[in-house]
Amino acid sequence: MNGVILAGLGVAAVAFTGKYLLRQMPNAAKTFNEAMKNLPNFEASSKYYKGGFDQKMNRREAALILGISPSANKQKVKDAFKKVMAVNHPDRGGSPYLASKINEAKDYLEKHSR
Question: Residue 11 belongs to what domain range?
Answer without folding.
Answer: 1-39
